[in-house]
């Protein structure tokens, strides 16, 4: 009995010493401050589980622009405000260039592609993707012609409703998807094509689920995954999506002619053949190809179409701004279709598009980053592998950078003479080494789709709904489209 008591006493003393050592190490390392944690949950009990970025904004006011959170056992550092996020992602880009291990992302991507990949796999896939997108028209006349053609089809699809109420979201998603499909496959889908609609549904459901409380719980407590239906749905959707990609990929192989490369997939197959001659450990394998197609299709369709959904909603909400855009289009473009070069002589329209992106705040938390080495940042020690959240919403609504950060105010991008002004705190595509690979394409799409629509239509709320009734609350998800609505596209 005495021996048992002695052993328990020794265990207790060792435990206390160990905890003291851990606490002492953390103290001497000068980690960022943060709210008090509780066992098992960490800080989960204080979080807004549907919109965690709102809690992070509140905490930044108490703990400063660099603070610590603990979600279950997952410790993370949140960076807020333009100066802090820029310092990390741009000035110390290499140190913040990794992705953390996030269970649902690892289950989904398995480390392949570019969106959630790591290390050398990410570097090689990103370098290839940017090069291939440029080779196949990103930022060039060939893709501008394709977008312009799609704009004509899109406006006809809106005309069918003859000014009656309809939900524009699915049509806008299909139009945006067709631009990236042109890069990938060299073709387009009709808006009512069953395959396209199925793909759009799979992608949208997964993006929505990735931002829900159920998957937040899974990412924090992955051993509970078997209890959570959301994870199963995401992975089932992934299988259906990749089965389609595989079928399309196999079809592409049959038609592939390395002397007549037409698409992104052709470029990958050529590179795959070249790399396989050099080494059996090439990164250019079919799993990476499927992941790249997945990444490009999802990102290329979702963020652009969501921004356009916000654009239509905001034009209904602010008809006087809509009218000014239409007047500038009429003056500078007339009745011909707008072209990218028109942007430089349309400062107000350009400012409105930028303000739509800022206000819409499509990816409020950003995709998570991780540190590649131990660093001292803003006076705090941050160890290698730390989960980092560079909070984009805090940049796009930074009160030190924007005159009216919480209002829709196109004058943010205009000087006193009405000329367009670039703003350093405009970071809707993130920044640094993980900046969106399709930024150039997205900018071209947004300008051409927006101006073509506003040239042709005036967007109005359905009868019985006033502009004051329109809801600007974002939906829940890893990206934030507007709450579903209906519009009337009235011919101008």
Spans where pLDDT lies below 50 across 5 or more residues? 1-11, 14-28
Largest sheet: 4 strands, mixed
Q: Round the mean pLDDT to the nearest integer and report it.
A: 90
User: What is the rounded distance between the termini?
Assistant: 92 Å
Q: Structural class given helices, strands, pairing?
A: alpha+beta
Treating each run of at least 4 consecutive H or I residues as one helix, how many helices? 16
Q: Please, what is the oligomeric state?
A: single chain
- Write down the secondary-structure element order: HHEEHHHHHHHHHHHHEEEEHHEE
Number of strand elements:
8
Strand arrangement in the largest pleated sheet: 1-2-6-3
Please tell me what the overall shape is: globular
β-strand percent reads: 5-15%
Rg (CA only): 25 Å
State the helical fraction.
Answer: 40-55%
Please tag this protein with its features:
four-stranded mixed β-sheet; 492 residues; two-stranded antiparallel ribbon; alpha+beta
Short structural description:
The protein has 492 residues and is of the alpha+beta class. It has helices at 2-29, 52-63, 82-91, 103-109, 119-135, 141-159, 169-185, 194-209, 213-220, 229-255, 264-278, 286-317, 319-332, 347-360, 392-396, 439-456, and strands at residues 66-71, 74-79, 369-370, 375-377, 380-382, 387-390, 457-460, 488-491.
What does this structure look like?
It is a single chain. This protein is α+β, with helices and mostly antiparallel strands and 492 residues long. It has 16 helices and 8 strands. The termini are far apart. The relative contact order is 0.15. Mean pLDDT is 90; it is low at 1-11 and 14-28.
């Amino acid at each position: 009995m005495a021996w048992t008591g002695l052993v328990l006493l020794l265990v207790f003393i060792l435990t206390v010493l160990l905890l003291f050592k851990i606490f002492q190490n953390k103290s001497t390392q000068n980690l960022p401050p943060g709210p008090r944690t509780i066992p098992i949950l960490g800080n989960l009990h204080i979080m807004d589980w549907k919109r965690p970025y709102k809690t992070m904004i509140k905490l930044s006011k108490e703990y400063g622009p660099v603070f610590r959170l603990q979600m279950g056992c997952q410790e993370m550092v949140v960076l807020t405000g333009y100066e802090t996020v820029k310092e990390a992602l741009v000035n110390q880009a290499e140190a913040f260039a990794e992705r953390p291990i996030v269970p649902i992302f690892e289950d989904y991507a398995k480390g392949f592609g570019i969106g959630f990949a790591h290390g050398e796999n990410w570097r090689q896939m990103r370098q290839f993707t940017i090069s291939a997108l440029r080779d196949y028209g990103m930022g060039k006349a060939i893709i501008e012609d394709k977008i312009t053609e799609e704009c004509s089809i899109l406006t006809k699809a809106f005309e069918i409703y003859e000014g009656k109420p309809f939900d524009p979201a699915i049509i806008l998603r299909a139009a945006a998807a067709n631009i990236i499909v042109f890069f990938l496959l060299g073709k387009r889908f009709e808006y009512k094509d069953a395959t396209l609609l199925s793909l759009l549904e799979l992608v949208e459901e997964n993006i929505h689920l990735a931002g829900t409380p159920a998957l937040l719980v899974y990412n924090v407590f992955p051993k509970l995954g078997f209890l959570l239906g959301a994870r199963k749905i995401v992975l089932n959707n992934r299988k259906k999506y990749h089965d389609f990609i595989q079928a399309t990929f196999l079809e592409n192989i049959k038609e592939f002619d390395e002397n007549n490369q037409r698409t992104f997939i052709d470029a990958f197959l050529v590179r795959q053949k070249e790399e396989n001659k050099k080494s059996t450990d090439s990164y250019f394998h079919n799993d990476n190809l499927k992941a790249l197609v997945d990444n490009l299709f999802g990102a290329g369709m979702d963020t652009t179409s969501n921004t356009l959904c916000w654009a239509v909603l905001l034009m209904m909400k602010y008809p006087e701004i809509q009218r000014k855009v239409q007047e500038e289009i009429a003056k500078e473009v007339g009745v011909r279709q707008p072209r990218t070069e028109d942007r430089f002589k349309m400062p107000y329209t350009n400012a409105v598009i930028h303000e739509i992106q800022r206000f819409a705040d499509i990816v409020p938390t950003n995709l998570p980053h991780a540190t590649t080495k131990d660093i001292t940042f803003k006076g705090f020690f941050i160890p290698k592998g730390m989960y980092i959240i560079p909070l984009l919403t805090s940049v796009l609504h930074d009160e030190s950078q924007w005159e009216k950060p919480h209002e829709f105010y196109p004058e943010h991008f205009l000087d006193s003479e009405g000329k367009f002004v670039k703003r350093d705190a405009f970071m809707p595509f993130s920044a640094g080494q993980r900046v969106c690979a399709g930024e150039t394409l997205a900018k071209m799409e947004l300008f051409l789709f927006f101006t073509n629509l506003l040239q042709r239509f005036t967007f109005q709320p359905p009868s019985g709904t006033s502009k004051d009734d329109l809801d600007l609350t974002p939906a829940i998800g890893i990206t934030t489209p507007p709450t579903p609505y209906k519009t009337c596209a009235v011919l101008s």
